[in-house]
């Protein structure tokens, strides 16, 4: 029957349209938007990047949160996340390594854990700042510190 064939064609065309649109979105990355957030360098930062996971552990060990607050968003000392968001990499690295003795920020230059992980530490906070790392994010593998 010609109309049955025709109906079938219409039906499959409708199905195609129904599935093609979401498929297109997935392929073009639209639905993956939360995964596509980028840093100023255009890289997406993951808590499970080995350097970032290591940095996360170092921050815990050194205990930056004792002054900068839970989630590093400010307590007695200012928010590290906001600082990285507004100031970027160079001032951040300087602030951590050189410190500010007068205002109570220790200098971490010479601390082997911080020295060896400064790039990962910056990347962790850059990820926090651009939202690609949530404040509750924990590395899947813990206790793996790069030295
Ligand atoms: C003993 C308390 C203390 C600890 C521990 C500490 N900080 Fe700080 N930090 C401060 C204080 C106080 C300031 C503010 C200095 C100023 O006003 O210039 C500061 C400033 C900073 C700044 C610059 C922010 C700004 O607004 O000037 C960064 C970045 C920073 N700390 C990162 C860290 C990191 C990373 C760690 C751990 C490795 C850490 N801090 C550990 C007290 C601390």
Please give a structural write-up.
- The chain is an all-alpha fold.
- It folds into 2 domains: 2-35; 38-130, Cytochrome c-like domain (Cytochrome Bc1 Complex, Chain D, domain 2).
- 54% of the residues lie in helices and 0% in strands.
- It contains 6 helices and no strands.
- The chain has helices spanning 2-27, 50-62, 65-68, 80-87, 89-98, 112-130.
- Helix 4 crosses helix 6 (112-130) and helix 5 (89-98) packs antiparallel against helix 6 (112-130).
- The radius of gyration is 23 Å and the shape is globular.
- The structure holds heme C.
- Heme C is lined by residues 62, 64, 66-68, 77-78, 80, 83, 92, 95-96, 100, 103-106, 108, 114.
The total of helices stands at 6
Can you write the helix and strand succession as a string?
HHHHHH
CATH class of the largest domain: Mainly Alpha
- Topology-level CATH name of the largest domain: Cytochrome Bc1 Complex, Chain D, domain 2
**Cα distance spanning the termini:** 75 Å
Based on secondary structure, the structural category is mainly alpha
Beta content: under 5%
Total domains, how many?
2
Any guess at the CATH architecture of the largest domain? Answer: Orthogonal Bundle
Low-confidence stretches: 14-39
Q: What is the CA-atom radius of gyration, in angstroms? A: 23 Å
- Can you give the mean pLDDT? 81
Number of strand segments: 0
The CATH homologous superfamily of the largest domain: Cytochrome c-like domain
The general outline is: globular
Bound compounds, each kind once, are: heme C
Share in helix: 40-55%
Main beta-sheet strand count, sense and barrel state: none
